[in-house]
């Protein structure tokens, strides 16, 4: 029996890993199976840009990344990378994910003059130890993953959900009309039993339903507009990560600020993130 999962469904596909490890500077597709709310999953869009930055020779560990989704990514795209600055201990790079026309005035694959679909900046830095005190947020007191309740979003609403297993803790559920805008769950990719690296973590940090959804009575899109992640330097020990997400701010205009923390199965802190989301009108049935 697989000690890391209790699923007995058909063997999972490796679409997420294939996407994150694809040649970054070729024309890319945004397959519908990797969509979140109406377009390519935000964590995957940011992960693709980080992978392209690495391909240019960025050295050091990924310390932080901030990505913005300007428009839903549904069409073929390419990624451009710029080296912004470098010091003795850090390197800063930026990337733009731009649409690529399938047929243009210069033939197939010609560039479209439209604005970028997404953009990101990232900081890579040394992990050399220092004598300074270490501080980490404590993980919430929750049962282990195998005691959590299986709760994956329907692929018809969030297609990319078929590629991960999600086990919720506590009583909060998305779109259940509760009073607490928070969600906590164990999550893992189902393609293999590898601990997630930083590219996979960029996807997993955005894998839960928006925590704001816990106080909404029915499903409606709440897509990511901006995703910023700071990595804590820890390493996951198994495919499972524990994610706690909360929404402390929701404006009258539908702008949602969400805070997210991620721990490994051994409760080592892995990353902290903030998301800016926008509540969209409910889709007609």
TrEMBL record:
* InterPro entries xref list: ACOT8-like_C, Acyl-CoA_hotdog, HotDog_dom_sf, TesB_ACOT8-like_N
Residue span of region Disordered: 88-117
Domain of life (superkingdom): Bacteria
Question: Which organism encodes this protein?
Answer: Leucobacter komagatae
Domain Acyl-CoA thioesterase-like N-terminal HotDog: where?
34-124
Residue span, Acyl-CoA thioesterase-like C-terminal domain = 147-278
The entry's protein name is Thioesterase superfamily protein
């Amino acid at each position: 029996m697989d000690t890391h999962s209790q699923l007995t469904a058909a063997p999972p596909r490796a679409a997420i890993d294939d996407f994150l490890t694809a040649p970054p500077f070729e024309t890319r597709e945004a397959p519908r199976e990797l969509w979140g709310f109406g377009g390519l999953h935000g964590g995957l869009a940011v992960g693709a840009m980080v992978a392209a930055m690495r391909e240019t020779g960025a050295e050091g560990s990924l310390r932080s990344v901030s990505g913005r989704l300007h428009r839903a990514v549904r069409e073929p795209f390419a990624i451009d990378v710029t080296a912004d600055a470098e010091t003795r201990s850090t390197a800063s790079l930026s990337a733009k994910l731009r649409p690529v026309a399938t047929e243009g005035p210069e033939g197939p694959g010609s560039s479209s003059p439209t604005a970028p679909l997404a953009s990101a900046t990232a900081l890579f830095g040394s992990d050399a130890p220092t004598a300074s005190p270490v501080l980490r947020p404590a993980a919430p007191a929750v049962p282990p993953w195998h005691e959590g309740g299986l709760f994956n979003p329907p692929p018809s609403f969030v297609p990319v959900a078929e590629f991960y297993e999600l086990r919720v803790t506590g009583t909060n559920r998305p779109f259940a009309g509760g009073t607490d805008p928070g969600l906590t769950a164990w999550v893992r990719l189902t393609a293999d039993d590898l601990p997630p690296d930083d590219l996979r973590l960029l996807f997993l940090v955005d894998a839960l339903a928006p925590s704001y959804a816990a106080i909404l009575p029915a499903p409606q899109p709440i897509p990511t507009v901006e995703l910023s992640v700071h990595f804590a330097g820890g390493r996951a020990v198994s495919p499972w990560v524990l994610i706690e997400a909360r929404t402390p701010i929701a404006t009258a205009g539908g702008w949602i600020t969400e805070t997210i923390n991620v721990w490994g199965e051994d409760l080592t802190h892995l990353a902290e993130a903030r998301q800016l989301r926008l509540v969209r009108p409910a889709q007609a049935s």
